[in-house]
TrEMBL record:
Species this chain originates from: Fimbriaphyllia ancora
UniProt function note: Component of the cytochrome c oxidase, the last enzyme in the mitochondrial electron transport chain which drives oxidative phosphorylation. The respiratory chain contains 3 multisubunit complexes succinate dehydrogenase (complex II, CII), ubiquinol-cytochrome c oxidoreductase (cytochrome b-c1 complex, complex III, CIII) and cytochrome c oxidase (complex IV, CIV), that cooperate to transfer electrons derived from NADH and succinate to molecular oxygen, creating an electrochemical gradient over the inner membrane that drives transmembrane transport and the ATP synthase.
Family indicated by similarity: Belongs to the cytochrome c oxidase subunit 3 family.
UniProt keyword annotation of Transmembrane present: yes
Bilayer topology term: Multi-pass membrane protein
GO molecular function, one term: cytochrome-c oxidase activity
Full protein name: Cytochrome c oxidase subunit 3
Domain Heme-copper oxidase subunit III family profile: 5-262
Length: 262
């Protein structure tokens, strides 16, 4: 007789990593405040270290559960995908708040801004220089990650590795170009509401690019170790969805903030 408690779902074991990750987030938040007010960066570094450790060990557990223990069954995989979609939806509302702040200030500039947008004294970046190049880089990365996805489904491992390697390269290139753009920007985050909304929106997007690049780099390592098959690659699917989300958000940022906003 089958046990009445038997079910096809995966019940995770007790883990210290959520607590460690929460502690890292706390230290980053408190350390950020101390850094801005007093220039202390040791607590921020501690928080970042805890987050990196959490990422490494927690992902290690997930890889073990999915690849070697077979916990990601046909019943579990759709739930993982639903969770990723809900996470992306929460990120959409996250960026929606930035766009709301930008259009609230730009569509009806206040008297303090000179009743013009961009505000008087602010020289915006040329939208047809580095931002346009970054747009081409991200669009290319979207094509290469789709190529890698179809290659995995078709069982073409070498093509998948090449496509995913190019995607990771484009992600790193985008981040490098954005660092150069910030370094050469003629305004700062303290320059009116324009600088604040610009650096918040584009900076958080750049942070998401770093996260997405990390996701795909881990998938690339797993792909090289033959941990993805044509039927079992839910981790890569979730990462590719996240990367396409980052691509779409950048298109809106480029059109609204860089091109129209300047």
């Amino acid at each position: 007789m089958q046990n009445s408690f038997s079910h096809p779902f995966h019940l995770i074991e007790p883990s210290p990593w959520p607590t460690l990750g929460a502690g890292g987030s706390f230290f980053i938040t408190v350390g950020g405040v101390l850094y801005f007010h007093y220039g202390l960066n040791s607590i921020v570094c501690l928080g970042v270290l805890l987050i990196v450790l959490t990422m490494f060990f927690w992902w290690q557990d997930i890889v073990r559960e999915s690849t070697f223990q077979g916990c990601h069954s046909l019943v579990v995989k759709p739930r993982i995908k639903y969770g990723m979609l809900l996470f992306i939806l929460s990120e959409i509302f996250f960026f929606f708040s930035f766009f709301w702040a930008f259009f609230h200030s730009s569509l009806a500039p206040a008297v303090e801004l000179g009743v013009v947008w961009p505000p008087q004294g602010v020289n915006p970046l040329n939208s047809f220089s580095v931002p346009l190049l970054n747009t081409a880089v991200l669009l290319s990365s979207g094509a290469t990650v789709t190529w890698a996805h179809h290659a995995i489904i078709s069982g073409k491992r070498e093509e998948a590795i090449l496509g995913l390697s190019l995607t990771v390269f484009f992600g790193v290139l985008f981040t490098g170009l954005q660092v150069i753009e910030y370094y050469e920007a003629p305004f700062a985050i303290s320059d009116s509401v324009y600088g604040c909304t610009f650096f918040l929106a584009t900076g958080f997007h750049g942070f998401h690019v770093i996260i997405g690049t990390t996701f795909l780099a881990v998938c690339l390592i797993r792909l090289k170790f033959n941990q993805f098959t044509c039927r079992q690659h839910v981790g890569f699917e979730a990462s590719s969805w996240y990367w396409h989300f980052v691509d779409v958000v950048w298109l809106f940022l480029y059109l609204c903030v860089y091109w129209w906003g300047s």
